[in-house]
Amino acid sequence: MSNKDEALDELKSILYEDENNVLDTLEDKIKVLDFKLNNKDEILSKIEPLFDEIILKKLQEKDSRSIEIYASHLAKIINKSAKQDLTELSQSLQKVVSPAIAKEIDENKDKMIDALYPIMGGMISKYVTQAIKEMMETINKKIEQGLSFDHVKRKAKSKLTGVSETELLLDDSIDARILSLFVIKKESSLLISEAHLDNEEIGDAHMVASMASAIKDFINDWIENSDAVNEVQLLSYGNATLYIESAGSVFIIAFLDAEPDHEQRIKINTFFASIVKKYATFFQAFDGDDSASEVLTLSMEMEDYIYASQPTAKDKKKNPAKYIVIFLAVLLLGYGLYLFDGWYTQYTLEKTVLSQTTETIEISKQDGHLILEGQVASTDVIYEIEKIMKRHSKESIVNYLTVPTTYLDARFKNVTNLGKDSLGSLQKRLASLEQNFEQTLSSLQKKIVRLEGQLEGSKAYVDKVLKNTTNEITELKEEKLVLKKVLEVKNEIFSKLDKTFASEEYYNKDNHSLDFRTLTLFATGDTVYKSKAIVKLTTVFEKYLAILVEYKEYVNSIIIEGHSDSSGTEEENIVLSEKRAIGVKDYVEKLKVVKDYHMQTYIKAVGYGSSKDVVINGIEDKEASRRIEITFSLENEKILNKLGEIIND
Amino acid sequence: MIRKKILLLGDFSVGKTSLVKRYIDSTFDDKYLTTIGVKISKKHLSIKGVDCELLIWDVEGSTPSKKISLGYYRGASGAIFVSDLTRRETVEGLEAHKEIFLSENPDAKFVVAHNKSDMLSDIAKERMNVDENTFLTSAKNDENVEALFIRLMENMLS
Fold first, then answer.
1. What is the rounded CA–CA span in Å between residue A94 and residue A86?
2. CB < 8 Å to B32, chain A
3. Which of B44, B1, B38, B2 is nearest to A212 (CA)?
4. CATH code for the domain defined by A334-403
5. Does ipTM exceed 0.85?
């Protein structure tokens, strides 16, 4: 290489230093990536977390395909894992499963119990059975130390037959009879379904169910207060026993005639488990409406179970060989003891019957049955004796008891008489009711006739009143029209007068009359008018009359009013004023226009004396008081005035 | 038939038992009330053509020395809270009864009976602030007793 090339390389290295550094870094990174791409462990470490995330996401989304694939593999994995190391697998699962179950139980307690009860019930039953075995062994030990007569008898039986005393003890106890079954909703205490043996129905079952729940709650509260952990399961009172089993959302009560033994409890529990499993959903949803079909089907199932669980004669003889051995053993021990025992039982029963009923009967034993013989006072006593026998003996009864024929005759007669009395009473009652009915019917018919008459009378009266009212209204309407017309005429006259006499000195616009107070018609105390003045009055009057004659048919009168001043006595003034008015009337009646229109009869003269004297500023204008006024009135003017007020209103 | 469990709640001597005696078809003996703190009665009624039966739990009033089982409260669809109008403290005490009842049965319905209204004047009755679910009752005069139970049943069926 020449010096020139070296110099060039050096120059390049200086110029490209930064780029070369970047290239070196990139080369290193490529080497690392190349390693990672070709190294399996490295790839797995990167990919595995991603797979975990994908699987978790798929499972959380409940992707059906993924679950199907994983499920098949999961089963194999668990199986394989279990073969390899079961302990480790159990520990691993326990960490997950236990909290999950605990959480589920906490959140859905009733549902979990309903689901688990059929399994757990069985497990508990097995546990209880084991416990009973252990308890029976303890009892055996106790029996060894006992000295009662029954114990001695049982011990002898055991020795002779080879059957253990425990078994003999259990055989002696016969299964309690289930009389009724109740299924009760735990939360509300409402009875869901019930079943009974015939003639063992419980009256007001719903109230009894509620009360049983309340008593159970009451006792449970007491148990909790006493730091015990169990719920009440058995309640006994006299011969009655309630066996209570709590399961999920319900509890079931069996009413029995004695305490159930452990074997019987297990049987009952198994049946309870089966119905809880079958009806769990229905029980949870029950809200008090008993119309659902499940109520009936459940009741039928329970009834079937009650009948199937009844102890039968067959049950009692389910081990005949044992009975034969016992019989032979007893025969060997001594026939006398056997007879004594039988006699003692019969004697005890006879004595009990005597003390409770005062009746003497004979009781004997034949073919395993108790034979009752004798005569007693009544059939009621027979029933009472049967009850006593059932209470004191578990053996079947053959009843040959009789009652006196006189009792039967008396009873028959009593019943017949009762029937006759009842029939007679009913017939009387019927006759009385019929009579009452007829009387009531007759009374009602009369009432209807009377009411119909009243209705007709009322209708005629109403029609009459209506007709009169209609006529009156029509007349009033007609009168109103006439009066309205008159009113219009009056206003028309006034209007014409006002117009004609607009500038007339002697016209009073306020009352539409002629007022001649400024015309000195008479001298003081004189009744003779002045000639010039009367001419002037005539001129104005003729114009006034010319308007009135146009409405002659409506005009009632034209009034000439005479007035005087207050000088002299009022009697004199009245006479004076009247004379003045008459004087003017006489004059105007003779006018041609009056005669032409035949208005003489319309003109009236009235004297007012000084009653309407003219007073100005408190001083009488005597000259003005001595005056003649001429005015007019129309037909019906009074009514018209009133109507005017009404119309204006 | 629709059956509902209802409770009668209120202080001592407010007249719960008298109120129920006025109304029921059948009942258990009073001795259960004093023995276990509850007495159950039954009443059949028809609401708008629907056959119903009320199982009425007459619950004894609790005292500091005698607590009532919460089991009695559970699963009730309704309650009647009863007070004695002549004793103010029994009216005020209703809130405590309501609180306990509703804590066990949040969705249940209830009505209120201010009892012994026969002891009040007409003016005093008018002054009482009552709504559609509150009644002035008198077991003595049979006033509003039936209306009280019917209203509760109607509320429970609505």
1. 12
2. 211, 214
3. B38
4. 1.10.287.4300
5. no
